[in-house]
Amino acid sequence: MSERTDSSRATGGDDVVVSLDDVSVHFEKEQGFVDSIRNEPKRVRAVDGVSLDIEENDVLALVGESGCGKTTLGKTIIGVQRPTDGTVAYRGQDVWDAKDGTGEVTVPHGDIRRALQIIHQDPGAALNPNRKVLASLEAPLKRWNSEMSTEDRRARIFALLDRVGMDPPQDYAHRYPHQLSGGEQQRVALVRALLMNPDVILADEAVSALDVSLRVETMDLLLELQRQFDTSFVFISHTLSNARYLAEKAGGRVGIMYLGEIVEIGPPQEVLRDPKHPYSKVLRWATADLDPSERQMTDPPVRSIDIPDPVDPPSGCRFHTRCPEAREVCRSEAPELGEDAAQPGARCAACHRTDPDHEYWRSEPLDGVEADSAPQESDD
Ligand SMILES: Nc1ncnc2c1ncn2[C@@H]1O[C@H](COP(=O)(O)OP(=O)(O)OP(=O)(O)O)[C@@H](O)[C@H]1O
């Protein structure tokens, strides 16, 4: 993505909670024994060159197809996935220096862990099946706030259970996870995160396992709690409609990911009404409820449905092998998202078409691509 001459990006003001600077996460891919002695280890480029700030009260919805790196990026934001390149800072403190005890550590790693919480897609798996809800909720509070009396701890837990609609809370607190519905388990997971008074909550496909009716109710609850507790949220979703619902209602951002990169980011109304990146147009087309007429009337705006291998992503623009507007230059030159993209409120797309003076407009269309000769109004 963006190339930097200086490795440290100037981040925003005091209200930046988490700041990612040119972060990449590459995993070594498991190979068979014969392959492993014959070949260089293969690396999955799950996340590549992402710079992003999460501010206080920020809401970011990350969306993209399966395997594009959403979960890996989300985990990197909350400091549970170590980047292979670039830096992640929590309120100016390098998260991994704090973890390793290197450099000058001004914020202890324990405080960072408390401040950055996660709720998973499958809350059942995240709760201990042999522990009652109360015990599951008390354990982290005891760890982080050992001074708190049992009475205060329980009062806080009951108040939060009540707050998420689990009434009477004493009844729910004494149940085992299997005695709760999926939606109730998800609420317990949310309470567990909120008990820590976090700055950021990563909600990884947190509503996709729920029935449609419950999904909207749960998204509304998340938004209400986000406002009430002044918590920032990073939502991960593979559907654009959920991402739009959350980001729009919260006045937040949508970030579109493709093969490890953020290709477009901005306010949901702008990104979805007038997508600048050809991949965002594909996602909009695939989301029937955003514009049903568009979907019925047209073929998908893509040349190939095959998703490239993240071990060996295409050169230049990673979307060029599928893009219906790709030209020769897209094969060799990677478009940049731009430095502004890190900041909330910015609207950016990593596509040469957004620059009316770019060489793209003089470059030959790739095979199967129809050329429009000049920049379009909406592509400016
Ligand atoms: N621990 C790991 N070791 C090796 N490869 C991994 C690991 N975690 C993720 N990957 C690979 O990294 C890429 C991105 O995975 P990730 O889970 O971040 O994508 P995603 O967009 O969240 O997908 P989904 O929507 O299916 O959950 C995938 O190719 C995945 O196989």
TrEMBL record:
GO MF: ATP binding
Low complexity: compositionally biased ranges: 299-308
Stored InterPro entries: AAA+_ATPase, ABC_transp_ATP-bind, ABC_transporter-like_ATP-bd, ABC_transporter-like_CS, Oligopep_ABC_C, P-loop_NTPase
Keywords, alphabetical: ATP-binding, Nucleotide-binding, Transport
Gene3D superfamilies reported in the protein's UniProt record: P-loop containing nucleotide triphosphate hydrolases
PROSITE patterns: ABC_TRANSPORTER_1, ABC_TRANSPORTER_2
Every ABC transporter domain range: 18-284
Region Disordered, residue ranges: 292-318, 357-380
Name of the protein described by the UniProt record: ABC transporter ATP-binding protein
